Amino acid sequence: MTMSEVPTHVPDTCPVVHFDNSRNQPVGGYFQELDEMRELAPAVWNTFGQGFWVVTRFDDQRAAYQDYETFTSESIIAVDPNPQYMWIPTLVDGPDHTQYRRLLNGYFSPANVAKREEQNREIARKIIEELKAKGSCDLAHEFCGEFPTRAFFALAGFDQKDAPRMVELVTTIFDQMSNPDDHSAQAAAAGEISEYFAKLLDDRRANPRDTSTDLTSHLLTCTFNGEPLTQETLLNILGVIILAGLDTMKCQLGYSFYHLATFPEDRQRILDDPSLIPSFVEESLRYYTIVQPARKLGKDVEFAGCPMKKGEMVLLDLAQSCRDPEAFPEADKFIIDRQNNKHLAFGPGAHRCMGSHLARQELVIAIEEWHKAIPNYELTNTEPLTEHGGQRGVNSIPVRWDI
Ligand code: HEM
């Protein structure tokens, strides 16, 4: 994978790393590398792709996320400083961003998500029932991928039959996100997602549905600066929501199940006391943090002795904050009932995850319902399990159980 020269303005006093985020490695490998980088220095230059800064520690990352004039969201992918696409609200800052979030927050609010709890439990139970009879499955795909997708499609009012293709397209986009060399498959997949939503918008314009249960119909009633949302804006918003809502859940749920399948003593604790599941979920979000947003510098800034230049990218990988020993006692330990777990897995700034209430609900439901139905299962892999970079996730979690 492409590595670049260190630019001349990076002084010898700034550590340089060669952190390739695009490969497969044994599960946990990325977290270990990120921990080592954080202990090396508060800021480093990474030669991967076109090269970018990495700010590694909790307090500094939090401050950066909150200073959108210096750390702008003009691009949020470290290896793609000049995106040829628009994502709303992700790539918008300041008052416009606030206005877009107001249009969307209600649909994903705790109250609206709570109304879907029973429906989501039903979806989870149905998938588990179908899988249970098989006696084995690849948890990563057949449950951790399948359940959140079906739940999300139900919440948004999208047609379930379109879910498999949408998952493929979203996966293509994320697979290429950490690839600095080639964005062609990503562009093709984004084009197909746009076409899909264009047809959906036409349909809902002709046949509007209940705006409290159909996201597309809701968006068609929204205004920005007093005007209805343009077709381009509608497509951008729908595209972002599908990108943000599917792969994240699959990856996070995958790490949670990887943990429970690998550490039977922790699984036994949640079987003995299921009231621990919400705090297990929080610890899993902290310990296995998957999202690694970047920011583009809107001005020159001197940080920890490193001269960062306007236009350069800065990776703010949230796993480094969430596992920072200055912020979390015994940060390197998975503590199921960790108290005061104020992790940043959903982001600490204005772009904080819009789907966090849905995500938390789905994670808890998935783990509760699975373990009610299939409490005893074991891994069947013959090779070490691997994780991918980009948005981190476990590639495959093959398990079996007695039927
Ligand atoms: C466990 C699962 C999830 C994790 C760990 C996660 C994490 C994150 C993080 C860290 C950000 C902030 C990015 C930044 O500051 O650049 C974010 C933003 C976002 N998330 Fe999530 N997310 C998850 C699930 C979801 C779901 C289910 C949805 C569904 C609607 C969603 C929708 C969004 C949206 C729309 C944004 C952009 C918000 C903005 O730019 O204002 N996420 N997410």
Give the N-terminus to C-terminus distance in angstroms.
Answer: 45 Å
Q: Quote the average pLDDT.
A: 95
Count of helical stretches? 15
**If you consult CATH, what is the topology?**
Cytochrome p450
Number of folding domains?
1
Assess the beta-strand content as a share of residues: 5-15%
Helix/strand-derived category reads alpha+beta
Report on the structure:
The chain has 403 residues and is an alpha+beta fold. The protein has one domain: Cytochrome p450 (Orthogonal Bundle). Helices cover 47% and strands 11% of the residues. It has 15 helices and 16 strands. It has a six-stranded mixed β-sheet, with helices on both faces. A three-stranded antiparallel β-sheet has the order 2-14-15. Helix 5 packs antiparallel against helix 7 and helix 11 packs parallel to helix 15. The longest helix is centred in the middle third of the chain and has 32 residues. The protein is globular and about 60 Å long. The site of protoporphyrin IX containing FE has 26 residues, from helix 11 and helix 15.
